[in-house]
Design a protein that fits this description.
4 copies of one chain form a homotetramer. With 256 residues, chain A is α/β, with parallel strands linked by helices. Chain A has a single domain, classed as Rossmann fold (3-Layer(aba) Sandwich). Helices cover 45% and strands 11% of the residues of chain A. Chain A has a 5-stranded parallel beta sheet with strand order 2-3-1-4-5, sandwiched between helices. At the A-D interface, loops of A face loops of D.
């Protein structure tokens, strides 16, 4: 998909996202969106597509580091709970509590017992949030291994993307099928009436982003809250220019 | 400045930012960058230019809401301190403790006494961080009122930018000169040997971003830590495709 | 009940509490005890009876202030979750999430809808903690109004206890029966197999404390973890005395 | 010193502490008290003497566990800052940031470089708090080694006190003189005009507590804020008794 075509489709949806955020602010709604999926699927880009037009004081991206030793011994959901939204806030989780049923299970970081406990607790935990009025959306980004391979190679070769490549990613290559199985088990246990999963095909990442954002917008209520009426009268004088005393701006970046 | 020219200049700097982040991770450095400046100057875009190529688990953007009543009674720096970096982290402050000497002073949200106290405390507070080894950079983005007016009008007219326009922005129009004075007072008090300010001209925002990023990179030590050596052997089998049982991906976004 | 008799009974139980704490530390157990009950019932004294012999770095007392405006809009349990124990910790809640079904309901601080939601959510929330392995104990301290009246008058007259007397306490006098009803409704909804309530008669506070501590100890598993073996060899020299250079201790409090 | 004599002296001071807390609440004062001193000196008991008559929602005891690996890499004062008081609060630190100049130095947990940095930073850090209006008191509890030996032996022999005895305590025996030296170095560097130290002789712990509490009260401003006027009218009916439906109180603790 060409970048210009992508932008042409995304731009009007950005306006809808802005409208959604205005509605959330005006009505005190709380929105949580989980972004899960395979490594390289494109979670980061999807999150940017949603967050880019929004006020960073309203829309928070939560990308937690791995738990500390102390957190490991706490109630599993505890470290996520502190990031849940207040009135008017939109929280985007870049990976989420589902780590336990995905990477932790496949890579053996969690015991079977812990994974089983998680799969039975997650729907209950989520039901509490939904019953409390939080709007919860769960997206899982899919991608075939052929595309994953291309992207891994791109990460290896592109210095800008190299940091995205970790030893865990490489280990994950051999476990593509194990991840598929883990996902299906996870879906069986946690695709509920109150908190359903939505799978989005990210073999084409731009199209995947359009699909995801469109779906998110379609599932939110009709959200037309007109923006506050603001007047911008004439300034009434010549505009001022910057005046410097102590310090001057540094030299502009040189252009050829 | 044309977008393509901008991208051509920025791309190699992105690679340097990635290198800087790798160095910070490898050596445990802690980096704090403050972004201050007039409304509409372009703080958000400058922050995105720095953060976009970096791992969101390493580079955090801190955009605090206004303090709660309880926070109002605490040590002024307390709510900022909890966001200071751990080893290897880079924290970008979208506005910062300098609110007190800028918007709070000009709009009368803080008393003269509080502003004065802040101006004498800030250098001491910052010296502690710097003495502790934190790398602290303070940028102030300047813009003439003519450009500010254009951008305010753009915010009013562009539904995508409308949320950036608040009544405080409008009040700030009449106070352009007061903001200039407040900045100069602030610079006199807080431009120190250990934590100097850097002013960057953002009348042209793209060029301003290039100037800022280039300056930031130039002021960091030579940071060449080679990326971890990673092998990507042949897969050894046909790549797997996604297999679905319970749920299928939703329909792709329709293209014409 | 005489103080000396009380102490004679409590002292051996203190040793058991210390043993319980050693066991919790050694095995990584997490213990949560809720203290609820009428105003003046004696929650503070009961908490002191449990915590006094324990290491304050292991046994935490949580007495939250009323929620901020922001917290009011969050998931109701959110501000409690952050105080749940890590491995080896014992957390004593001086009032708890049950505020919503008690004081908030009776005094009209919460809407009926919110109280109803709480009553159906609390058992689910608690089941999650218990399923996660947290040992949860819920005590409700009862007292007749005649005793409550005596204690209110004592609070009024005794300068040391005066701070315990708030306008809410006085309003609660007229609502003794409403509190009874609220408690019974709460018990019906939240006395569950996995997190049962224990009522303790605190008409005699000393005896109530003995009853509560004995019950708590009896319901914990047999907890005999011997203390670490520590040798205290002879010092091998005359003991040193304090030596002062810059500062001397201040004068001792004068005794007649 | 006999317990009854001790109580007779302490009781009127408790009333003064209550008055001080009422004054802090009414005027929004913030109070911080550090309790430092040798192992076995009696920090816990001194803290209890101050906190026991006060509202636990107003007077917080902060006894931090050892720092996590992540905290180790942060600004040294960061984890303490989050516990500083809001308006009206009193915070008692059971050990404090001075760990670095005491146990960490003597036991070799911190490098000389870190200790030196701490000794130059602490006065600056404290000046900021004091300049911000926080009332800061620093007490160091002294005790001769002969008394320390008695108390160590008591901890070894008394099951109730056994948890207070750690291997670090034993190691500290051989380092009594090193602790003395570390204290004197610390006093030289951190006994400042704005945040002076007060040494209190705790060879007799009861008397030490009286000395400390008296000193603290004497150094606070005259704090007479009369308690709120509260009326306690007649109840106007027979007092109600508890009525139980679902659950009865458990059997009272049996007395002989």
């Amino acid at each position: 998909m060409k970048k210009s075509d992508y932008e042409a489709e995304l731009t009007p949806m950005k306006a809808e996202l802005v409208g959604m955020a205005r509605w959330a602010r005006a009505t005190g709604q709380r929105v949580v969106v989980l972004f899960e999926g395979r490594d390289t699927a494109g979670k980061g880009g999807a999150i940017r597509a949603v967050s880019e037009p929004l006020n960073p004081r309203q829309c928070h991206i939560v990308a937690l580091p791995k738990p500390t030793d102390t957190q490991q011994t706490q109630w599993y959901f505890q470290r996520y709970v502190e990031h849940l939204p207040s009135a008017g806030e939109i929280v985007l989780f870049d990976r989420s509590w589902y780590n336990r049923a995905g990477v932790e299970k496949v890579m053996g970081y969690a015991e079977e017992r812990q994974v089983g406990a998680f799969l039975s607790q997650a729907p209950i935990f989520e039901k509490q949030l939904v019953d409390d009025g939080i709007l919860l959306f769960k997206y899982w980004l899919t991608t075939d291994q052929a595309r994953q391979e291309e992207r891994l190679r791109e990460r290896l070769d592109d210095p800008l993307k190299r940091w995205k490549l970790s030893p865990v990613d490489l280990a994950a290559r051999d476990k593509y099928e194990a991840y598929t199985e883990a996902r299906e088990t996870m879906l069986s246990a946690t695709h509920t009436e109150w908190a359903p999963w939505t799978l989005v095909d990210f073999n084409d990442q731009k199209r995947g982003r359009l699909t995801l954002v469109r779906d998110l917008l379609d599932r939110l209520p009709d959200t037309n809250v007109p923006p506050e009426d603001i007047e911008l009268p004439e300034l009434g004088h010549e505009p001022h220019a910057e005046r410097y005393t102590l310090l001057q701006p540094i030299a502009d970046y040189p252009l050829n």
